[in-house]
Design brief:
With 302 residues, this protein is an alpha/beta fold. Helices cover 41% and strands 23% of the residues. Helix 1 packs across helix 2 and helix 1 packs across helix 4.
Length: 302
């Protein structure tokens, strides 16, 4: 055995703390050490194993595949240590989630509540922001899990399919078009219409479809979320074309939803890091969502 073997445990502790915290500052705070002590332990471990464990890019430390494998092999060791002198109170694992308003409000809040009631040893932090911020937050390691409806192919991001939906037209139940089983683009001509803003890619797609059908709705309002659009429709301002997921689950009793005859398709994804291992709590929450997402007439599993 190497004469340096006595360094192994502190080095392994530094490795696990750095992978969990993401920065030497967080790792040092967790272990009650200085940042330089963490850096020395990692450098010593890399020298002793002959492997690069973290890539240093623009001031950030990203674990390599070798670090992930080594950390996984260390699980039994630290589990044994926890059994010997671990804390008597279980440490709550934290899941950092980010999602845009349409997913976060009502939908994720409901499922987070049921998840935490079933798993009180977990803790969840939820941030509501734009889909662009979802991607940036995952890349910057500020969040473990994102839910998004925007397909952005970015290095370092893994998008896992969640739900697929087709466009629907939402309107008050007493609207004349509510008698139709399907709404066509031509049906929208001269109808009071609530549109999504142009930051939504589907707005441009819808405009093209309407132009091809020589259909010109009377746009009475533009909004940034599907929930705002259906809430205005509920108030009788007009009708709207939206992604039914997850809005349908919360407005199906208040409004009439009809399929919109078009090729417009929406996809929802779980966004995670392609570089960092997915925390156990994130895997558990994704499984919870997949199992408990209600079925609806317009949406299918991704």
């Amino acid at each position: 055995m190497s004469t340096k073997s006595w360094h192994s445990l502190p080095e392994y502790q530094a490795l696990r703390a750095l992978m969990q915290g993401g920065t030497t500052t967080a790792a040092a705070e967790q272990l009650g050490l200085s940042q330089s002590a963490i850096s020395r332990s990692i450098a010593s471990l890399e020298s002793r194993t002959g492997q690069m464990l973290f890539e240093r890019e623009a001031g950030r430390l990203r674990p390599t595949a070798e670090a992930v494998r080594l950390n996984r092999r260390l699980d039994p060791l630290f589990a044994a240590l926890d059994r010997i002198d671990g804390p008597t109170i279980p440490v709550q694992e934290t899941l950092r989630i980010i999602a845009p308003p349409t997913y976060a409000h009502r939908f994720l809040v409901t499922h987070i509540t049921s998840f935490l009631k079933a798993n009180p040893h977990f803790y969840i932090s939820l941030e509501v922001n734009t889909s662009d911020e979802v991607i940036r937050g995952i890349l910057d390691d500020r969040f473990d899990l994102g839910v998004t409806g925007v397909e952005l192919n970015r290095d370092g991001i893994k998008l896992s399919p969640y739900r697929i939906s087709n466009a629907v037209c939402a309107m008050p139940s007493n609207h004349p078009l509510a008698q139709n089983t399907v709404i066509t683009p031509a049906d929208l001509h001269d109808q009071p219409f609530i549109a999504l803003t142009y930051r939504h890619a589907r707005r441009t797609q819808l405009d093209k479809i309407l132009k091809q059908s020589r259909s010109t709705p009377r746009i009475v309002a533009e909004v940034s979320t599907s929930f705002a659009a259906v809430d205005m429709a509920k108030e009788g301002l007009g009708l709207t074309v939206i992604n039914p997921f997850p809005v349908y689950h919360y407005r199906s009793d208040d409004l009439t939803f009809r399929p919109f005859a078009s090729q417009i398709e929406y996809r929802s994804y779980f966004a995670t890091s392609a570089q960092r291992p997915l925390p156990r709590v994130a895997r558990a929450f994704i499984r919870h969502l997949r199992l408990h997402t209600p079925a609806d007439p317009f949406t299918r599993k991704g």
